[in-house]
Design a protein that fits this description.
This protein is mainly β. The protein has 2 domains: 152 residues, Beta Barrel (OB fold (Dihydrolipoamide Acetyltransferase, E2P)); 205 residues, Porin, CATH 2.40.160.40. 15% of the residues lie in helices and 51% in strands. The protein is built from 4 helices and 20 strands. The N terminus is likely disordered.
Amino acid sequence: MKIHFLLACFFLFKLISAADIQIVEIRDSNLFQLKNGTLVRLANVDAPSVDTPDSNLAYLARSVKKYAENKYRSYPVSVVYSGKKDSNGYPLVHIFQYYPLETVHINLVYLKKGFGRYVESAGDTTYQSIYKEAARLAKKEKRGVWNPTPYKKINLSDYMLSFLWGYRKPRDTFYKTSYNEITMRLAPAKEISGLEARGSVYFKTKEGRLCCECGGSEYIPPYRTETSVVYVVSGIFHRTFKWAGFSLGMTYLNTKDMYCSEGADSWVFPSATVKAGLMEKVYLSVSLWDYYRISEYTAGVTYIFKNPFTHFWIGFGSYVDYKNRAFQLDYNFYKNFLLHLQGGCLLKEKTEIYGRIGFGFILH
C-alpha cells in the first residue's frame, strides 16, 4: 500500500513539474524551442535537417518536423538536460511526456521510427542501452533514415478508425419516422490532410398506413410499422494549410422504401467544405451537402484544444428552408483513443433531434 502511494505521489509530481514546460516551436526535425526561449536538441539522435542538400533526406526531415509539430508542440513535457551541447552550442536533452496511461520518451520514439541515427555522447550513458536497441531494430526493419527507397514514399500521417451509432427523429406531419444509423470512418487523425472513406447504413422506420390509391400523402389508421434501409458511401479529400483549408468529396446514397411497392432510388452528389482562420486553434467553416452532420448546408466555428486534443464544432445547418442549431464534439483521449459525440435539435413547430456517439482509435 505504501509503495502504491509513493508511486502515485511520484507520478503526480511528474505531471506538476512538467506542467509549465512546453515545446512552443519545432525549428528543425531535431531542434525544439521551449517556452522559456531555450533551443534544445534530442540527445543521442542524429536526425537530418530540412536544409540538407539531399532531397530525399530533406523530405524525410520535413515529414519528421511535421510529425513533431502534430505530436509534441504545445503539450506539457519534462526535459532532462544531459549536461552536453552539440557543435552549435545547443543543449542536448532527453524529453518525456507523461500521461495517466503511458509515458512517451521522445528520444526513444525518434530512434524507433528511424527519424535519426544513434550517436554516442561522452559521459551520457543513462539511456544508452535502450537507445542502441531501438536504433538497431529501426535499422533491421529499414525505417526512416535506414530505408534505401526514396523518402517521399513514406507516409508518416496517422489515421483514425471510428465506429459510430446514431439516431435521428425527423419532423413528420402524417406519420412517425425515426432513423437508426451505423457508421464507420477511416480518416486522417485530427482531420488535417489526407483521404477519408466513410460508410453508413440507416434503418428507417415509419409508423402509418398510406392510402396508395388516394391522391397526395394521406394516411389512414390503423397504424403499421414498415422499415427501409439506406446505404451511404462517401470519399473525401482533406487539405489544410496554416490559414485555410478545404475538403472535396463524392457521396453515393441508395434507399429502398417499402411503401406502396416503391423501388430503390439512388443518388450521387458532391460535397465541399471551405475553412479559414488559425487552423490549429479556431476557424470558420462552410459546407455544402455535409452528410456527416446530417444536413444539406452547414456553417459554424471550430475550436481546437491541444491538451488533450479536443475538436469542438458549433454552428447551424439547413434542411432547405429550415434552420437547425447543432453541435459536434470530437474528443481525442490521450492521443490514442477517441470518443465522438455529436448532436443537435431543430426548434420549430415540432422538435426534431439527432445524435451520434462512437469510439475510435489511432492507427500508427
